[in-house]
Amino acid sequence: LGLYFTPFGRVLDLIDDCIACAVDKLIADFGGFVWDEAGFEKLRDFVRENLNEVTVDIAQKVEQILTLTYQLNQRLKGKMDFTMAFALSDIKSQLAGLVYQGFVQKSGYDRLPDLQRYLQAVDKRIDKLAQDVNRDRAAMLRIEQVQQAYQQLLAKLPKSKPISDEIISRSLSKAYGLAGLRIGYAVSNPEIADLLNRVRQPFNCNSLALTAAVAVMNDDKFVEKVAENNRIEMRRYEDFCQKNQLDYIPSKGNFITIDFKQPAAPIYDALLREGVIVRPIAGYGMPNHLRISIGLPEENDKFFTALSKVLKFA
Fold first, then answer.
1. Residue 276 sits in the same domain as residue 145
2. Which residues does the UniProt record annotate as the domain RNA helicase HrpA C-terminal (predicted)?
3. pTM of this prediction?
């Protein structure tokens, strides 16, 4: 491989390019990207198991491509008939666009056979060029006319920005204090919003929730007040946990998760009997934890008193 690839880069670069192409193919064969730890481990094992075999397969295809490229470049060397100058210059541009440093991954596994076919076509073009230069020039002219027509048509299209596929969603249940109304909003491109509207349930938000949402979003002072209360009361929860040697998960939201180092279900039941409702999260694989919402000072006082009683804190 190195003999033919020398004009384009180091042999190690070519090997890395083949490996990267193999990884892309294996990810596609696996079913695409994964977004969780378990899926990543399975994908990693799949790639490790098959990487050598696929890389060798790619390297063999690349060797054929580079061999053809080398042979074509050899044919283009030497004295040049002036009548062929434009055609040979066009051929060199074609080769530069097909085989270059990094071409393996950028072309992709499925397109490597196409590259070989294109190079074979270039070889035949050179053969026919010597027989009839005018025919080749006429073909180049037709291609140029098609390209110009395409550019003219492209210029007539309205100028527009590419459509973003991102959706930003926001809940109004935290700082805005509307958890019970189950209301929020999303920001997206209008085309995406139209698609969402087609699948959403009719009347999914009631008029009371919508009215409240508009009111709180226009009330900056209310939001600042809620956020300040959350900061102060969150600190109280952290101090309470540290004082009583309870581990907790640091939070920037309006809730805190406490690790009781024992099954939390009995603690949850005992708090219920004290009139305090918290959230068990055993369903998320955290049977020793409870999630507590940060409330008003008097609500938090009641929680501290109830939990101290349940756990018999002094």
1. no
2. 2-164
3. 0.49
